[in-house]
Design goal:
A hairpin with a 2-residue loop joins strand 4 and strand 5. The chain is built from three helices and six strands. The chain has two domains: 75 residues, RelE-like (YaeB-like fold, 2-Layer Sandwich); 36 residues.
């Protein structure tokens, strides 16, 4: 993906989000050209554009560059969709998940044994 697309200029962050969330630059252009809703963003001079395309509600935060008559795309996401978990995070957390499962099994046996001793 290019940093420049039609009248749009993408930040590195925005390009990373497009790849991560499988959103095309053309979809971003469609959201900006024909938004269903617009809101002021939390940051000055930025606007949030929202439009549903292919049953995905796409949010785009952009800032108009008056001197270039272009839009700087700051961030892009899809409402209601979680970002995929990176493989490195899955690998790092895997041993802890296994340990937690083993601990739950051991605790269930301890609890069962303790309840049996109390009843007898």
């Amino acid at each position: 993906m290019d940093k420049h697309y039609q009248n749009l200029v993408f930040t590195t962050h925005a390009l990373d989000r497009l790849k991560l969330r499988t959103i095309s630059q053309d979809q971003v252009q469609q959201v900006l050209s024909h938004p269903e809703k617009t809101f002021p963003s939390d940051k000055p001079d930025q606007i949030k554009f929202i439009r549903t395309l292919n049953q995905r509600t796409i949010h785009v935060v952009a800032k108009h560059l008056n001197d270039q008559n272009k839009w700087l795309i700051v961030s892009v996401w899809v409402r209601g969709e979680d970002d995929p978990i990176p493989l490195t995070w899955k690998i790092i957390t895997f041993p802890f998940k296994i340990i937690a499962k083993i601990a739950n099994i051991i605790l269930s046996y301890i609890k069962k044994y303790w309840l049996e001793k109390k009843i007898l």
